[in-house]
Amino acid sequence: MFLTKECDYAVRIVRELADMGMKPVHAICSRELIPRQFAYKILKRLETAGLVVARRGASGGYRLAKAPEELTLFEVLQAVDDRLFINECLQPGYECPHNTNGSMCGAHREFSRVQKLLIDALNEKSINNII
């Protein structure tokens, strides 16, 4: 699995919002060194996933929708990039020509095992634990 720049920026945004305060985009971008055009795109994805709340207007901004103790790194990464698979054969709907008679090939089984370990590790600790 390769984490994109968007995933990195999403973690930085969540880190900045971990104090549960409402913050404007320019403040988030300034403190976390994130280009504004990426921040808006990422914040929209985090909002769609229910991880942040947006408030419009002069006193608006963004804040976490959940306490950092209730939010995992996996949730943040998945909100931004739904392709967190170590191999394309693990994606839903992928039909591997090497899977026969309803059983997975050995490579698929191993990728699946490693994928589960990775997801479990990313879910193991809350954002609060890692910041």
Q: How helical, in percent, are the residues? A: 40-55%
Counting helices, strands and paired strands, the structural category is mainly alpha
Name of the top-level CATH class: Mainly Alpha
CATH architecture: Orthogonal Bundle
Q: How is the CATH topology named?
A: Arc Repressor Mutant, subunit A
State the low-pLDDT regions, or none: none
Q: Judging from the principal axes of the Cα atoms, what is the shape?
A: elongated
Total beta strand runs: 2
Number of domains as seen in the coordinates = 1
Order of helices and strands: HHHEEHHH
The biggest beta sheet reads: 2 strands, antiparallel
Strand content: 5-15%
How far do the termini sit from each other?
A: 22 Å
